[in-house]
Amino acid sequence: MDKFDVVVVGAGPGGGHCARLLAKKGYKVLLLERYKDFGRNNFSSAGVPKEILSKFNLPENLVGSWWNRFVVVTTHRKRIWHSKENQGCVLDFQKMRQFLADEVSCHGGEVWLGCRHIDHIERDNDVLVTIKNNLTNTKIEVTSKVLVDATGAMRGVMCGKEKKKPSLATATGVEYLIEVDEKVYNAHAGALTFLLGHKWMPKGYSWVFPMEQNILKVGAGIYNQHHELIKEVKPLGHYIELLIEKYLQAKNYKILDIHGETLRYSSGLQDTYNDGRIIAIGDAVSTVNWLGGEGIRHAMESADIAHRFIYQFLEGERDSFDGYQRQMHSIFLQKWNLCERLAKRKYSQDTDDLVNKAFSYLEGMKLEDVVDILFYYKFEKISKGLVAFILRKLRSIFLK
Ligand SMILES: Cc1cc2nc3c(=O)[nH]c(=O)nc-3n(C[C@H](O)[C@H](O)[C@H](O)COP(=O)(O)OP(=O)(O)OC[C@H]3O[C@@H](n4cnc5c(N)ncnc54)[C@H](O)[C@@H]3O)c2cc1C
Question: Where is the Digeranylgeranylglycerophospholipid reductase catalytic domain (predicted)?
Answer without folding.
Answer: 187-257
